[in-house]
Design brief:
8 helices; 11 strands; globular; binds S-adenosylmethionine
């Protein structure tokens, strides 16, 4: 496996977390990516998110259908998704970008068996242009539960960077959380109850909890608009409560 050095200055990434109640078990997800213990906790509990399993399986199936041989992951984390992508696309090479050394350490161990099919790059998505991706021309890229950690202008910048980085016809898949519309809070509660997801009981408390975690999701409409402006055709493949899987194709 190749590891490229991260260009530019190191900056702390914001954390993120949610509380899930699954099978009577409550898991507190507070992830401060630069803390090795929090990174290890995320790595253990990530699979417990109710809609993550469904949406990741769809993401993998779409990637399989397009069969790209060179893939970029934006926010590779501990390599949980990358491992499945590399298993499902045996011909593919993958470049994974992340800013947190403890997450990249976990990814390095997890993905070691794929040898030189994997390149891990340390880079801050808030300065995406400075990230050195190497020579690969990516036929596909994806990002899972990462961009909601960035402020909106940085999210837009990442989409613009992807628009410049990905060639015509390249596929981009985005699985992330979106804003919970406050006036529709009770409608979301109905879905969370069915999913057995434990969330703050009111819209202001949810807003406070997101702010405390450093989460900054954007509305789905904004994300689609920014992708369109960056040169992508977009479609929503799956949405469940505040999580969506978006497909985008470079025009
Ligand atoms: C919830 S984890 C998701 C990891 C992986 N995509 C997955 O689904 O298993 C979010 C990741 O985003 C990364 N991240 C957050 N802010 C970042 C930034 N500004 N630059 C690069 N990576 C960032 C964190 O380090 C963390 O690894």
């Amino acid at each position: 496996m190749r590891t490229l050095k991260r260009p530019g200055r190191r900056q702390e990434a914001s954390g993120g977390g949610e509380t899930f109640a699954r099978s009577g078990r409550t898991l507190r997800r507070m992830s401060h990516w630069h803390d090795p213990r929090q990174a290890a906790t995320w790595d253990r509990v990530a699979a417990e998110s109710p809609s993550r399993g469904v949406q990741l399986e769809l993401l993998l199936a779409v990637l399989e259908r397009f069969a790209p041989t060179s893939v970029l992951e934006v926010g590779v984390g501990s390599g949980l998704v990358a491992e499945r992508v590399l298993e499902r696309l045996p011909e593919a090479r993958l470049v994974g970008v992340d800013d947190a050394a403890p997450m990249l350490d976990l990814a390095r161990t997890r993905l070691d068996r794929f040898g030189d099919r994997v390149t891990l790059v340390r880079g801050d998505l808030r300065r995406a242009e400075a990230i050195e991706l190497g020579p690969d021309a990516f036929a596909a890229a994806y990002s899972v539960q990462t961009l909601h950690h960035l402020p909106d202008p940085a999210k837009e910048d990442v989409f613009r960077w992807l628009g410049r980085t990905l060639p015509r016809d390249a596929l981009f898949l985005l699985r992330d959380k979106a804003t919970v519309v406050p006036s529709l809070f009770d409608a979301y509660v109905t879905v969370w109850e069915r999913l057995r997801v434990e969330m703050p009981p009111t819209a202001p408390e949810l807003a406070g909890s997101l702010a405390a975690k450093g989460d900054d999701p954007a509305s789905l409409a904004d994300q689609l608009g920014w992708l369109d402006a960056a040169g992508f055709d977009t479609g929503v493949l799956h949405a469940e409560a505040h999580y969506a899987l978006v497909a985008a194709r470079r025009r």
